[in-house]
């Protein structure tokens, strides 16, 4: 089987625009949460979220002008803008420039989203109600369609290989990277731009997740304390927004062009719970099987895993995942560090798995596990290290990242140091 | 230049992201100003909105240049 490595990284998160800016703040234990400013939140129950810091582009702020021209931005929902920004960063970081027709045909894009253009759909529905169907913009549909991140990125760079998009709720980003890696392994492409993007901080998005009883509601006084995975006082997840994109590349292709190789995608596992539309099965078996399959594909055993980036959303489901991990790890549990970076950036839904896979890549590079912040009172006594509040310097050769989504869909990625 | 022409030009500049001096009488939205077919649909909608008029589809198809737009709107408004 052809080997797949990571050669480029890009992200826009509530901590910062940019990979290194986000990573530094994550390791420092900062939170991206605050009061909602994207819309008038007076009508929704949860009035805080993790929003991308907007600004002129300096000091890690996100300046839309840096990534898409104003005339083009009017034609896209925010999730596409975020996805484009992360993709441009990742492609630049990789140094990959597809010049020949062959290069272009062998480079594909696989950037998904959990929900896509939710705001555009809501605003257009209101427009029809108030002013009639003839006022609908010709750009409404292409601004809202989930696969238009992949479409827009392919048009920007001329990448003419597989053009695809995953839609598996909060597992989207992990599935996109796993599926794209397989496309390279199966020789459908040599390079894939893969990840996820999401912009759910809108009235309809917050109201919808509030109705599901999924969001934290009790921390309006200090939103930075609201996302607290594994803590006894957690009360739901905190909505985030943003995008994560990686450049995946066939190993020999990357070597031949002298690319900087960050890590190798060693394994990928998937499963379904067949249990409930929003809740994970209480025995955690779906997550267990997903992780076990990913390790099997990697040819590794649980004791080989050094760091786990948990799904860990700061909901009741945290302890179900913890139980599944402990079952998987067995006696090796004491040797692993697991953290939930959603404690710092909130839940980026369809972008979460991609951003968290990048955190795993950086954990491998820097030999440090990012912390689980706000972990003050453990909900249960864990058999493994949850890196409470402080980043953990340690040996990390193999990292595992979990993403679980509504509908009972589970994905796990195993990423390791590249073995030449 | 007429008030109508100024307002049409402002819309064209804003929607197509082009320099104001490129928007001349014979400038074709598609051939000279970089519009695609969806842009032209949106431009016509913006003209309807700005001038409170209705531009039927068959008439919209005849509006190819900046001059066409000004002429049509002047006669319709």
List keywords for this structure.
heterodimer; A: 420 residues; alpha/beta; Peroxisomal Thiolase, Chain A, domain 1; 2 domains; 10-stranded mixed beta sheet; two-stranded antiparallel ribbon; globular; B: 77 residues; mainly alpha; Non-ribosomal Peptide Synthetase Peptidyl Carrier Protein, Chain A; 4 helices; fatty acid metabolism (chain A)
CATH homologous superfamily grouping of chain B: ACP-like
CATH topology assignment of the largest domain in chain A: Peroxisomal Thiolase, Chain A, domain 1
Radius of gyration of chain A: 20 Å
- What percent strand of chain A? 15-25%
DSSP strand tally of chain B: 0
Which residue ranges of chain A are poorly predicted, with pLDDT under 50 across at least 5 consecutive positions?
none
Structural class call of chain A reads alpha/beta
Order of helices and strands of chain A: EHEEHHHEHHHEHEHEHEHEHEHHEEEE
Average pLDDT of chain A: 98
Low-confidence stretches of chain B: none
Overall 3D form of chain B: globular
Largest sheet of chain B, described in full?
A: none
Name the chain pair with the biggest interface and residue counts per chain.
Answer: A-B, 11 and 8 residues
Largest sheet data of chain A = 10 strands, mixed
Label the CATH architecture of the largest domain in chain A.
3-Layer(aba) Sandwich
Helix content of chain B: 55-70%
Q: Briefly, what CATH class of chain B?
A: Mainly Alpha
Shape of chain A: globular
Q: Please state the second-level CATH architecture of chain B.
A: Orthogonal Bundle
Q: Can you tell me the number of structural domains of chain B?
A: 1
């Amino acid at each position: 089987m052809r080997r797949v490595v990571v050669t480029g990284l890009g992200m826009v998160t509530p901590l910062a625009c940019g990979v290194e800016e986000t990573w530094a703040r994550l390791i420092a234990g900062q939170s991206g949460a605050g009061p909602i400013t994207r819309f008038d939140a007076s009508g929704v129950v949860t009035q805080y979220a993790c929003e991308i810091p907007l600004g002129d582009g300096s000091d890690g702020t996100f300046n839309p002008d840096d990534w898409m021209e104003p005339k083009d931005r009017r034609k896209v929902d925010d999730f596409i803008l975020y996805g484009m920004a992360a993709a441009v960063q990742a492609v630049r970081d990789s140094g990959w420039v597809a010049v020949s027709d062959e290069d272009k045909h062998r480079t594909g894009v696989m950037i998904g989203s959990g929900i896509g253009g939710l705001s555009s759909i809501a605003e257009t529905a209101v427009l029809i109600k108030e002013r009639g169907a003839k006022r609908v913009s010709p750009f409404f549909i292409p601004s809202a369609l989930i696969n238009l991140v992949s479409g827009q990125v392919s048009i920007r760079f001329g990448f003419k290989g597989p053009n695809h998009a995953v839609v598996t709720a909060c597992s989207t980003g992990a599935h996109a990277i796993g599926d794209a890696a397989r496309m390279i392994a199966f020789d459908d492409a040599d390079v894939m731009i893969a990840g996820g993007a999401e912009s759910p901080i809108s009235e309809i998005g917050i109201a919808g997740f509030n109705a599901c009883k999924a969001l934290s509601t009790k921390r309006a006084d200090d939103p930075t304390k609201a996302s607290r995975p594994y803590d006894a006082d957690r009360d739901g997840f905190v909505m985030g927004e943003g995008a994560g994109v990686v450049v995946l590349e066939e190993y020999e292709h990357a070597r031949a062009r002298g690319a900087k190789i960050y890590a190798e995608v060693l394994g990928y596992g998937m499963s379904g719970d067949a249990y409930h539309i929003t809740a994970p099965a209480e025995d955690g078996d779906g997550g267990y099987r997903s992780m076990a399959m990913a390790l099997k594909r990697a040819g590794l055993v649980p004791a080989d895993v050094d760091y786990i980036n948990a799904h860990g959303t700061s909901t009741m489901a945290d302890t179900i995942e913890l139980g599944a991990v402990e079952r998987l790890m067995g006696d090796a549990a004491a040797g692993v560090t697991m953290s939930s970076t959603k404690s710092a950036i909130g839940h980026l839904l369809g972008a979460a798995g991609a951003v968290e896979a990048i955190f795993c890549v950086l954990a491998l590079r820097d030999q440090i596990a990012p912390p689980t912040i706000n972990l003050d009172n453990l909900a249960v006594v864990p058999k493994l290290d949850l890196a409470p509040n402080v980043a953990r310097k340690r040996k990390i050769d193999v990292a595992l990242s979990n993403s679980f989504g509504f509908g009972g869909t589970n994905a796990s990625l195993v990423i390791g140091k590249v073995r030449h | 230049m007429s008030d109508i022409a100024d307002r049409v030009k402002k819309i064209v500049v804003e929607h197509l992201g082009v320099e104001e001096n490129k928007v001349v009488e014979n400038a074709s939205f598609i051939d000279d100003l970089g519009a695609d077919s969806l842009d032209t649909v949106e431009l016509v909608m913006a003209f309807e909105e700005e001038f409170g008029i209705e531009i039927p589809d068959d008439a919209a198809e005849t509006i190819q240049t900046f001059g066409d737009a000004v002429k049509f709107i002047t006669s319709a408004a």
